[in-house]
Task: inverse folding
């Protein structure tokens, strides 16, 4: 089974869930949904931006890395501030990726992700969260990351046949 290393670096430009302050933390899973978290970051007492720099190594069980940024609320219950879902196929080149992602609830999440092992994730998964630059502008990948990867493999095999 493939392993995935996820480092939750930081979050910025997020909406403050409690109005003036937030106590955010992240739930990370590859198990198929946001409801079964595998790992959780520490809770932060910062507002506006938070730095965690926490690394997790987990089995790549599903098709995506799911990250839910949650505001800790003692009395009213924890509240999701935004989510991102990234297909494991995006990391199939098995190189480290250091990227910013736009959260569904607003804000930017900085992750470092590295998929390792010879197992390949399914290519048909699609992203929920949009990959973006640190300034919030969208990163263009053409039609899709998975499609680009398959296209490149096809070009390489076609080129080898010609030789």
Result:
């Amino acid at each position: 089974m493939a392993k995935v290393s996820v480092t939750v670096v930081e979050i910025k430009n997020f909406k403050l869930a409690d109005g003036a302050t937030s106590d955010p933390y992240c739930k990370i899973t590859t198990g198929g949904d946001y409801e079964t978290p595998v790992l959780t970051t520490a809770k932060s007492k910062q507002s506006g931006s938070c730095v965690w720099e926490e690394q997790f190594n987990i089995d790549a069980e599903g098709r995506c890395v799911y990250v839910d940024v949650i505001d800790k609320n003692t009395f009213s219950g924890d509240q999701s501030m935004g989510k991102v879902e990234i297909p494991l196929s995006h990391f199939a080149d098995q190189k480290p990726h250091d990227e910013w992602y736009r959260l569904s609830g607003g804000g930017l999440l900085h992750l470092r992700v590295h998929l390792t092992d010879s197992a390949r994730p399914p290519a048909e998964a699609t992203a929920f969260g949009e990959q973006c630059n640190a300034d919030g502008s969208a990163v263009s990948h053409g039609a899709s990351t998975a499609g680009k990867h398959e296209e490149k493999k096809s070009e390489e095999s076609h080129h080898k046949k010609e030789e």
